What we know:
38% helix
Amino acid sequence: xxxxxxxxxxxxxxxxxxxxxxxxxxxxxxxxxxxxxxxxxxxxxxxxxxxxxxxxxxxxxxxxxxxxxxxxxxxxxxxxxxxxxxxxxxxxxxxxxxxxxxxxxxxxxxxxxxxxxxxxxxxxxxxxxxxxxxxxxxxxxxxxxxxxxxxxxxxxxxxxxxxxxxxxxxxxxxxxxxxxxxxxxxxxxxxxxxxxxxxxxxxxxxxxxxxxxxxxxxxxxxxxxxxxxxxxxxxxxxxxxxxxxxxxxxxxxxxxxxxxxxxxxxxxxxxxxxxxxxxxxxxxxxxxxxxxxxxxxxxxxxxxxxxxxxxxxxxxxxxxxxxxxxxxxxxxxxxxxxxxxxxxxxxxxxxxxxxxxx
Length: 358
């Protein structure tokens, strides 16, 4: 974020600040001199020790304040907004996980729908310059036309998680239309990197390969993902934060563009614009860990899609940025962090490209 940004001296709320992306966004804003209020419920969807470790990194900044609040707690959210004076909000808190949503549907409605409604109501009653919120590549669902573009309709989600993210986009549009709340939704594509979530593939595979444990490879490895390094995601978020949307003067109801509106509303993809085979990702992890994976090949799981691939032309045009970190670079940085965080020494006796059997 530029030093002369109008948001530098104003408080910004980052929800999900103890989470993977929220932590990185909050840190980048704090490094730029922005006063940040971080909100998180610190739930136990995965190990809270990692979440607390992220928060410890943020608490060293004098401009950081942390609030432990559940998004679905209407009274607590109303009280927070009453005393806030927020100029902008980066809403990243959510119940995540496609497969988890198959077995735990109510958690997704509570956090992703009711929780987001409380954020929108806060913005309506206490206006902000810009609400930037996390959507997901999962909204593309059954669509198989590549690359995914924000100008495509997304009417066929294949998981409840995806449906709640699509619902968020619709809810945001209604508040932009009815109350003039400037809203921008960001569809993230398979984010990975240091401080990542233990339930995500890069983390799970790294841990299992390092420990000589088998990894579950779904659809027998015949899947492709647009893996996006977290620093690229964060750069996109912060650039968009400085670009509150206005109405698109060319928008027409007869030929409605899903990515824009006659209201102050936008949707962007943030992805690496590079669809990579799952087996290739595993190979890169193997090279960096120095061990071969024991692969447990399994059928496709409910809620999964075969491929994701982001068109980022709108983001590049409006924000002047497109993600570009090669997977080989990003995974190396992740494995380096993983070893450091878990206190695992690097075996300098092995060749950098040598592999041993797990």
